[in-house]
Amino acid sequence: MSAPLIQLDLDIEGMTCASCVARVEKRLTALDGVEAQVNLATERATVTAPSTVTADELVAAVAKAGYTATVRPPADERAAADREQTPTSGPTSDPSATVTTLRTRLVVSAVLALPVVLLAMIPAWQFDHWQWLSLTLATPVVFWGGYPFHRATFATLRHGSVTMDTLITLGTGAAYLWSVWALFFGMAGMTGMRHEFTFFAPDADPSSALYLEVAAGVTVFLLAGRLIEQRSKRAAGEALRDLMTLGASEVSVLRHRAPDPTDLMAPTRTEERIPIEQLLVGDQFLVRPGESAATDGVVVEGAASVDESLVTGESVPVELVAGSRVIGGTIARGGSLVVRATAVGAETQLARMAQAVEAAQLGKSRVQRLADRVSSVFVPVVLVIALATAIVWALTGSTMEAAFTAVVAVLIIACPCALGLATPVALLVGTGRGAQLGILIAGPEALERASGIDRIVLDKTGTVTSGRMSVTEVWASGATDEVLALGAALEAASEHPIAEAIVAEATRRDAARPVVSDFASLEGLGVTGTINGGTVLAGRPAFAEDQGFRIGPDAASALASAAERASTVVVVAWDGEVRGVVEVADTVKPEARAAIGRAVSLGMTPVLLTGDNAAVAARVAGEIGITEVIADASPSDKVDAVERLQAAGHRVAMIGDGVNDAAAIATADLGIAMGTGTDAAKGAADLSIVSGSLATAIDAVRLSRRTLGIIRGNLFWAFAYNVAAIPLAALGLLNPMIAGAAMAFSSVFVVLNSLRLRRFRPAA
């Protein structure tokens, strides 16, 4: 019998390029039964392993690859630490410290390197013995400024590996050592020596050639690129950090106790302030104006306007009353609430959102997996190319200096860090921005599937419609409010959705409900009672006729109109006649028609797929502008409908919210679950919409396509850069310092290009 599987997250320090990622993955997966996915942007690995494999073994495997790893704490512990603003354990726990250290190295190195570069580039500024000043200034830049690169190089070399940092160390080190040799043993140290900087390989006496500006300048460029990269990666993860720190650190819990017979004035409910970690399911807690709800729950008392924008992306505050659902992390803007906790810790919606976003950010697209495989052999290939370059230049009779310049340029320009960052940084930003808008993306595979969608299939109830019955029309032979007041008085005791809709409408209109006596209910037919001495009925038309109430011509006309609209009707009758007809229907979401229009503009043909009857389906489809309707569909029928569209060559997205939609969501090329729906639907989906808004669902497709487009652009740039730059460097057409600037820019470009996703906005 095989051992059960466990999953651990590791924080990894020291990775700088895609070849590092491939090396760590190779070491981890060499352990029996271990699967690992390593992400450069988040500097993390998610490992699935048999329970017989210990965390120490996994950490040791990473160490054998030349890197440092620590086990990542659970999400709720990290969130608590973030709220307290204390660093969690692990090498990546304090990214601001890394940024500060890099900034210090960059500033000092830039100040020292600037005179070195200017003296090398401007012969008129070169004075006697200027070269020795350059050596003095360049030495701390190369060794102290470049220490992060050199440390990584020697750490991996100890384990028989080479990485991007190896190329940097070889390139800058060779340029520096050549210059030292030329100064001490060649002609470069002579008084009056002058040096001319060129963009192309010079052809001069190698014993007088200096490359100190290359060694110092490249180090500064690389430090600048690394700093921008780290700051941008940190900014890219801000959305996730915001999610994990939304909850309060403390909560006011209400404690109940039995009345004290000796002190009847003593309170039976007291307030106690406790850390959020001590809150239990079932506890009642207080949310005051301006405070965040400590966890998920249900309102027990009070009413408040609650801002859910940070969780659902909805900008309009939601009015919550007794019985309303509360999402942890949302903010009460007006009024106070007493909430009963229904979930705590990792079980809250906020925690599950954060976990989903983190899981998505670790994923890799098919193209990125190819890039990782290429990068794993890229550095050794570059070393071979550099050696071949030196040999070819030597065989063609060129000067030693020209050959050396070409070799150094090849080593410096070929660093594959842009390849490693192309997908994870874009995914980091895209999923984080999606989380801010209430969109949870399962991973890069979902982005790839979203790109080719041309059919979007929508469930009706809860997706296109609100999923709640509402009063849409009222006909009355007299006063409308009287019909609603009498109907609501009879229906007040019922929990049926139709009854609740009538009561809600009467309350909205402030229609005062009279007292009912002699109440009687016939299941599925209607209710009767005595009001002000007379018998009043609310129910089906046939039930009213059976009870002896006449349906007059006007009432019959109102019923016929309701039938045309496929509405559900409740008649209200008294004094022997039907005097009111109340139409109730599941109303279309306000944003639905505009959302369907945007789907069409994105090249997707909408299809309404519902289990409701054809008349209701046709009415709803007509309201929102859908022409293709499939009605009376069972769960298996929905799967068949999706498969038929796929068989016809279409790429299908399915949007739904119920258990009956789960199979179709899983079958579709892209599954989208509304967050107001069931766990079964959300579990089968590639994208989940926290707010349940159809407009947000269409925005999710837009964001997915935009993110994938950024990823493809990044990968194209990274590949094209190396393909074009390495031959130029090998041919001696690039000065090594220019090569270093170009290499640093390639990584910065990929990161900054990805950060454009932070500006993604929902469609107006």
Mean of the pLDDT scores?
A: 78
Distance between the termini: 57 Å
* Number of beta-strand segments: 26
Main sheet makeup: 7 strands, mixed
Shape: elongated
- Strand proportion: 15-25%
| Unreliable residue stretches | 85-93, 199-207
Class from secondary-structure proportions: alpha+beta
Count, helices: 27
How are the strands ordered across the major sheet?
Answer: 14-26-25-24-15-22-23
Radius of gyration using CA atoms only: 35 Å
Helical proportion? 40-55%
Family: Belongs to the cation transport ATPase (P-type) (TC 3.A.3) family. Type IB subfamily.
Keywords: ATP-binding, Cell membrane, Membrane, Metal-binding, Nucleotide-binding, Translocase, Transmembrane, Transmembrane helix
Pfam families: E1-E2_ATPase (PF00122), HMA (PF00403), Hydrolase (PF00702)
Transmembrane segments: 106-124, 130-147, 167-188, 208-228, 374-396, 402-429, 714-731, 737-755
